[in-house]
Amino acid sequence: MSELSKRRIPCKVFAPATVANVAVGYDILGFAIDGIGDEVVIRKGSVPGLVINKITYNSKKGLSKDINKNVAGFAGLKLLESLGLEKEPIEIDLIKNMPIGTGLGSSASSAVAGAFAINEYLNMPYSKKELLPFVTEAEKLADGSYHADNVAPCLLGGMVLIRDNATLDVIKIPTIPAIKAVVIYPHVKILTKDSRSILSPNITLRQHVAQSGNLGAFIAAMYHSDIKLLRRSLEDQIIEPQRAELIPHFDMIKEIALEEDAFGFSISGAGPSMFGLCANTMVAENIEKRVKAYYKKQKINCTVYISDINKEGAIRY
Amino acid sequence: MSELSKRRIPCKVFAPATVANVAVGYDILGFAIDGIGDEVVIRKGSVPGLVINKITYNSKKGLSKDINKNVAGFAGLKLLESLGLEKEPIEIDLIKNMPIGTGLGSSASSAVAGAFAINEYLNMPYSKKELLPFVTEAEKLADGSYHADNVAPCLLGGMVLIRDNATLDVIKIPTIPAIKAVVIYPHVKILTKDSRSILSPNITLRQHVAQSGNLGAFIAAMYHSDIKLLRRSLEDQIIEPQRAELIPHFDMIKEIALEEDAFGFSISGAGPSMFGLCANTMVAENIEKRVKAYYKKQKINCTVYISDINKEGAIRY
User: Fold this and answer.
1) Which neighbouring-strand residues pair with B96?
2) How many CB pairs under 8 A join A and B?
3) Domain containing residue B135
4) What is the DSSP letter of A249?
5) For B246-268, what is each residue's pLDDT tens digit?
6) Of B196, B208, B237, which to mutate for an interface test with A (greatest number of A Cβ within 10 Å)?
7) I need a labelling partner for B19 at 20 to 30 A (CA). Which of A198, A311, B118, B139 fits?
8) How many domains does chain B have?
């Protein structure tokens, strides 16, 4: 076992919220945003093993402190087990800034914060990419499926393509520097599991061809910084039509975003959050203003984030 | 009507063979190869209108000389009609180097040669991209479906992504300079229409996710010149398993190609041709040698082309 002298304290990390699926990449595409995410603080523990000392909530409470049930603890545990350090005395505080069930990768954010913090504390035995199996395993605790389209961008930052979820083969795609994301979270409840079960297990070959053309073009647009191509390609023909009904007034919100000149607009992850990509902050703010006014009339609370595409992913600070 | 002084003679063009689908991009991806393609020669005609004077065949004969039935003539006719020049006296010779029904874009090659030659003859009223509607319309004559995954790379060269076939929204993707294509054409007959009808109209969402991951990674690999990623991504989980049975000994030929270190190996277009992408000519030649020997034992004739990815597409010479 490593010596305490190799531990790094104080150790405080931040792991950002993420937008998965990104209209054209169901289960294989995601990007990180700024301004919202979970935090973990690490201390040397007083008893052997990993312990969750405290969870601070920004909204609704209710997460387990059991490290086998809490994704932050579980991701950390998996990492420690891989090193034979499961008896290492470690205490973590989870600062749960993100509400749960938003479609913004709340569980991914906690999982990444947990594993990343412990990796930093242990003086980085793993690279960021090597943490992926631990955090994806933990993510599976939360939504029952082994997929990295939230955890990978949360960890690595930027726009991340997951070639293959089973082997965690992930590729960072460049992004167009100027673009802004506008992310809208209406305060209604959708469970990821429900949002998955609503999806038909089959699609038509025609839908596949159309969606593939848009995915390919979206990626090419990112490499070429081709905003016109991005505008033509950012459209979900498969998942959005099935899930839109779960989100109150989705069609109207999308109409507002496109009227205000978003390049495209769709559902973030399993919803209810939605995202748009825009040419600049002004466009994003115009969307924010109109969407807030609209939802206010409908007596639905919502939170809007306007953000660059986060380049760093999880950071120690 | 324009004056004869604006006509360019002599006018002789070449339009290359193409590999469509490229494992990961059914109906939306194609590339051009060197060394095989159709040619068209243009002369001023002696009577009003477009006339096919002669078709020279390299293999089996049997194409119509009726400009409403011959794809080279039909593509040219559509171009002329768009300019109000359908009475222009033009005679074309079609040099049909490509056998028909190979899966190497034989009809696309003729269509592109026809329209490109007439455009050149008319002193280029259209850019290459603007010729796409005429050649895609002609391609539809041959296989009943409006799709540009052969005509677009044949015309433009390189690796071409078709975001949307209906609007002919095409994007040239960079290719990794060193890679070679090995293309194997076993001399057996498959009709494109049959090869389309064998395909199930539905796929699973899981297949879509897997194939999309590979498509995205394939495109990223091209931009990054990442040969390892290309190797991991060049795999067709949807079309190849359904069509492989139409091609004699497909599994064995693929096994040979992968044993000899092709990055990936799959069906070219609707088959029966197959293609592999390789790191260099040596790999391609090793595949050629073993495949030829194998097919010889099976008493099946085959032709093998080893080629760069053709960068130019249709050319006047």
Assistant:
1) B57
2) 128
3) 3-172
4) T
5) 999 999 999 999 999 999 999 99
6) B208
7) B118
8) 2
